[in-house]
Amino acid sequence: MRDLTSLQKQINSVCELKYNEPMSNHTSFRIGGEAEVMAFPKNTDELADILKRASALGVKPRILGAGTNVLAPDAPLEGIVICLKDCLDGMQLLADDRICVMAGVTMTRAALFAAKHGLSGLEFAHGIPGTVGGGVYMNAGAYGGEICQVFEIAVVMQPDGSLRNVSRSDMQFSYRHSILEQTGDIVVCTVFQLKKTSAEEIKAKMKELMAKRSASQPLDLPSAGSAFKRPVGGYAAALIDEAGLKGYQVGGAAISTKHAGFAVNLGGATSEDVKTLLKNVSDIVYERSGIRLEPEVRIW
Ligand SMILES: Cc1cc2nc3c(=O)[nH]c(=O)nc-3n(C[C@H](O)[C@H](O)[C@H](O)COP(=O)(O)OP(=O)(O)OC[C@H]3O[C@@H](n4cnc5c(N)ncnc54)[C@H](O)[C@@H]3O)c2cc1C
Question: 223 and 138, same structural domain?
Answer without folding.
Answer: no
